[in-house]
Each structure stands twice: as C-alpha cells, then as structure tokens.
Amino acid sequence: MYRVRLFAIRHSRSFEWIYHRVEQALVALDPVLSRIGYQRVERPVALVEKVVKSVLFDCKMCGQCVLSSTGMSCPMNCPKQLRNGPCGGVRPGAYCEVKPEMKCVWSLAWDGASRMKNGAQIAEVLPPVERNLEGSSSWLRVSREKAAQLREAHEARRTTIAKAFPGARKVEPSTAPLVEEPEAAHLDPTIDRPAGAKGGQG
Ligand code: SF4
To answer: How far apart are the first and last CA of the chain?
Structure first.
C-alpha cells in the first residue's frame, strides 16, 4: 500500500486531473442523485470511495478529503494526524519521527503539490477535521455543495437580468420593448373584472 501511495504522489498531476473529472461527473449527475435521494446513494458511493482511495492513498475515510490541497498525500496517515504541515520532529531524510520506516506525509505532500496544477493550495490553512463526518463520502458531499453553488449562481444571474430589464427599457426601449395593451382595455371599464364581480357590486 505504501508503494502505491508513493506512486500516487509521484503522479499527483494525473490524479488531480482524474479527481476533477470525477467531480464534474458527480456535479452533472446532481439532478439524478437528488431525485434518487443523496441519503440512499451515500452508502454504496462511500463504499466505492473507500475501496478506491484505500488502495491508492491509504485513505482513512475522514469524510473531508483534502488530497487536492496536499499533493495527493493523505494527512490522515500522519501518526499525529496533522492537517496543516509537519511537526517539529521530522528525521533526517524527511522520515517520520513516530514511524521511522515511512517518509513524513507532509514532506511527500510538498513533493506532490509541486507537480500539481493547483499545487499552491497547499499554502492554505485547512480547517480541523470534523470527526462526525468520518466514514461518509467526501465525493458526494463536495459535488453536492458544488452543484448547490452553481444553482445559486445561476439563480443570481437570472435575478440580475430580471432587475436590469426595466432599467434597460428606460435607457434603450428597443432592447426591451413593452407590448402595447389593446385599446379596448382602456375603453371598457369592465374588462379587468372577474365575471361575477359586476353583480356583486351592483
Ligand atoms: S484526506 Fe480523508 S478522505 Fe482524503 S484520502 Fe485522507 S482520510 Fe481519505
């Protein structure tokens, strides 16, 4: 497993690309997943995620995957589970203080990040791990959040256009012309009233 983990870090750029594609696919599937119910697909997706990521990254299913920010080196493999860089005890040759047979995950993280397109993300401070998310699918959570953000952005754009429409009409009427009401609507005082309204008022 350790060798595969090192392989993933050496090919972090390719895995970054694959991760991006998987995320895009899941975001595109959001309408289907919403219809089925995210709770229903949580277990099978989490199982697939666990199998794939355990083999490739020695994943511990923390539920808040940060591989894209850590050069594809899982920080949960650090014996101290540090999420924001190495402790002060890294041995010569970048070996771990607690497990001298393995390299410090943060030394590997910097190595992997240096090969990635968005490797600079490693400089961002990561939030502490939320233990209540342990075991859940990070793929589903992230793609669901992204899909919701896209929906909100789309809705905001629609609202902005709708608000801009009356303004555009004032400045340049031909860009947003008003449909003229029929002449009869102004002449016939009963035209807007419901059928029964005439009798009730009489
Ligand atoms: S950061 Fe969490 S979800 Fe990502 S590989 Fe490590 S344990 Fe698994």
So the answer is: 88
